[in-house]
Amino acid sequence: MNPAVSNGGRRGLWAFFWLLVVFLYAPIVILVVFSFNDRILVSFPWQGFTTRWYHEFLRNSAMISALKASGYVALVTAVATVVLAIPASIVLVRRRFFGKGLVSGVLLAPLVIPLIVFGLALLILFNTIGIPLSPLTIMIGHVVVALPFAILTLVPRLERIPAWLEEASRDLGANALTTFRSITFPLLLPAVVSSFLISFTISFDEVVVASFIAGDQPTFPIYLYSQLRLPRQLPQVIAVAVVVLIVSVIVVVASEVGRRIADRRLERQIADFEESVA
Amino acid sequence: MATEAAVDATATKGGRRARYHRRLGTLGLASPSLGYLVVFFLIPVVTVVAYSVGLITLTPRDDYLSFQPWRDFLFGSIYLRVFWRSVQMALAVAVISVVLAYPVAYFLAMVAGLRKYTLLLVIIAPFLTSYLLRVLAWRVILQETGVVTSFLQGIGLVGEGESIGWLFNSRFAVYLVLAYAWVPFVALPIFVTLETLDQALLEASSDLGASRWRTFRTITLPLSLPGVIAAFIFVFIPTLGEYVTPSLVGGVNNFMFGNAIQGAFLLGRDWQFGSAMGAFLVLAVGVLIVLFGRYLNVQAVAE
Prior knowledge:
The complex is a heterodimer of chains A (278) and B (303).
Chain A: H1 7-34, H2 52-59, H3 61-94, H4 100-108, H5 115-129, H6 135-160, H7 163-171, H8 176-205, H9 208-213, H10 220-227, H11 234-277
Chain B: H1 2-13, H2 16-52, H3 68-75, H4 79-111, H5 116-124, H6 131-142, H7 147-154, H8 171-195, H9 199-207, H10 212-240, H11 244-250, H12 257-267, H13 271-292, H14 298-302
Helix pairs in contact in B: 1-2, 2-13, 3-13, 4-8, 4-10, 6-11, 8-10, 8-11, 9-10, 10-13, 12-13
């Protein structure tokens, strides 16, 4: 007898699982379907298939410039976040020192700050020291929001890379930088890619902090938020939403699958190596 | 960790100089990220508190060195009541999310077998896409001229021009959308604790004659409680300061504390009052972290 679940319970849990999957994906599917409905109101009845909402958003220069602004902000944010997160993760995994608990607490603290308070905090800071609001100020905020997620993506992978690989490199005379460049970084690369994509996604979607510290150029989520009250704009807002959602699902799933394949390969290589040494 | 100890041992052999260099290296590795967070995270948050009591003034209407914004908030406004309403709503959302997510996590850990990571990804994937766009999807589905109402009108269950009151701009809509947003995330820490649970304990319990229900109640559930609490806190905290979902599907009557703060800044332009509310929210979150911080093993979740 299986002590965790009966046969009936097993069937019930399968059913519950698939119901939840339907619940999670139904809104996205509905959004996709209705983005092709030839009707200004996003609702029944179905009035025929059209791609005109997609054409309309491609011609909407305000929307395109908001998308470009978000892409630019997210790209710079992701690069800066990864550059900060890599040394931070190395410290958390490879070093022991006094006050390490405090350091990891500070590095992960942005996870629990209500974003609305962080947004207003940055608004007050930038006003106090006289920095004008611009895409740059949004990037400054987004790096803080993304940093813990990037670190939490890098740390597990770094823990899987045996420290003796780095020690061997140092024993053979390589300095710290060479060791990092030729041993640690190549092995860490899959997680670096993941953390880049996660940081990019977080920044591209972030509206709460950005709404406090955006200058004149709205990012995509800010623009979207401002358009939701205009019913005439809704169909093309939905068309662009569908494109962004589908691209992000593909990117996220691909990066997750890639990360898992890379993890398994690393484990196999290490096991093979240890066997050959033994 | 054994490897760390080994590294430290080699450093000791190299003598004092090597250890000094290593410490310098640690400092060099840690300081960019720490420095960044001190300047752009810790200092701004402290500034909010300073500003709310007038240690700094920014606009002509700001009071210099005054507890007036705090007094107004704590004793003279409806906003403290909005805060308590947000606490209730965040509790409800956290409970609903956990109740929906627990069976799924249990299923993945105990029933799904080898496919569990793939199925977990199926559950998690929507969470990793745009939050705002998912709320938008629900707005399109629920609103008065939306998909659900127009469908029911089409089949004649709801008359033309009528709508369903509780469906949109309602408490129900806020709970539905927030629970929808959080379920995948809540399933994750619960799954981690259930997956690392020692299966032999369950077999021992069953061998000793306990029913499945008793095994669940006395072994599985208590051992998975840390994951449940972690999930609960991770939902409760951001929901407390939520404003996107209430303003898009909740309507004015269901505004949460985040809406009050946002209103003070962007509409009322009373920044000091908004800062007092913001500082209050941070203090509330701080109390929660002190009480429950030991359950927040974020690293286990990340893996």
